[in-house]
Design a protein that fits this description.
α4 runs antiparallel to α8 and α6 (130-139) packs across α7 (157-173). The strands form 2 sheets. Strands 3-2-1-4-5 form a 5-stranded parallel beta sheet, sandwiched between helices. The protein has a two-stranded antiparallel sheet with strand order 6-7. It is an alpha/beta fold. The chain starts with a helix and ends with a strand. The longest helix has 19 residues, at 89-107. The chain has helices at residues 4-7, 16-19, 31-34, 50-64, 89-107, 130-139, 157-173, 207-217, 221-224, 238-243; strands at 41-45, 69-75, 115-121, 146-150, 176-180, 200-204, 248-252. The protein contains 10 helices and 7 strands. GO terms for molecular function: hydrolase activity, acting on carbon-nitrogen (but not peptide) bonds, in linear amides. InterPro entries: GlcNAc_PI_deacetylase-related, LmbE-like_dom_sf.
Length: 253
């Protein structure tokens, strides 16, 4: 979770998620059309918490369908508060994974059967480590798996590196990949032309799915608190939490 796109002034009503006219035209897809019966679901998150931001609602729906689930967290998210004495990297490396456990519990994920792999790669340096990340992901994939990860053009270096690395790993192993936009939605509408609208599909969420996802997002106390002493705003900004209230999630097929 590294919201560079919310830190550089790209805020306000004219963001892709709430102003792009193409959103209304995106076809709906059922989770069973994304994941065949019996297939294992593998969610590859650049940082702890990205699994909730990207597909917290979809995870709930797939869990009801009783798909085996594996979560791979590539980093521990320890670079989310650079320069902070309140949230130093040493503290975040412990806290962020703990917050993810609580968030998954709030989503209703079967923690007793969930396999969770932690990569331990350097937060903020995944573009440099992309080849190693790809090899790491491939080690935990199987033919026939269905993987979900961040879009390779999402707008932050770590998200994009993991998207590319996951695509390479899936091609190598024979797994199927879907990509999920996260920070791309918080770009100005004029940049919406970069989004592959023809590949986009909506996964519908009911009010319970949305409520659970928001409840899960609020498990990330470290991301809801910035550090005023150094002018650092909350990582989970108001705009992002508002977007999470939408009754759908978008998958690129």
């Amino acid at each position: 979770m590294n919201p560079a796109s919310l830190r550089d002034g790209r805020r306000g009503p004219a963001q892709v998620w709430n102003s792009a006219p193409q959103l209304a035209q995106i076809p709906t897809i059922h989770p069973s059309s994304l994941v065949p019966p019996g297939a294992r679901v593998v969610v590859v998150a650049p940082h702890p918490g990205d699994e909730v931001l990207a597909c917290g609602g979809l995870l709930q729906r797939l869990s009801v369908l009783e798909h085996p689930l594996q979560l791979i967290s590539i980093t521990d998210g320890s670079a989310s508060h650079p320069g902070s004495r309140v949230w130093p990297a040493s503290r975040l490396s412990v806290v962020r994974p703990q917050e993810s456990v609580e968030a998954l519990r709030r989503l209703g994920m079967p923690l007793h059967s969930l396999k969770w792999i932690r990569g331990g790669f350097r937060d903020g340096g995944l573009a440099v480590d992309e080849h190693a990340v790809s090899q790491f992901i491939a080690r935990y994939l199987q033919p026939g798996d269905v993987a979900f990860t961040t879009w390779r053009h999402d707008g932050t270096a770590d998200h994009e590196a993991v998207g590319r690395a996951c695509a390479t790993a899936c091609n190598l192993v024979g797994a199927h990949l879907y990509e999920l936009p996260v920070w791309a939605w918080h770009s100005p509408v004029r940049e919406g032309s970069t989004i592959p609208w023809l590949r986009a599909r909506k996964v519908r969420l009911d009010s319970w799915n949305v409520a659970r996802k928001l409840h899960a997002a609020h498990a990330f106390a470290s991301q809801l608190a910035g550090d005023p002493a150094i002018g650092l705003p909350p990582m989970l900004a108001h705009d992002l939490l508002e977007r999470m209230r939408e009754p759908f999630e978008i998958v690129f097929v």
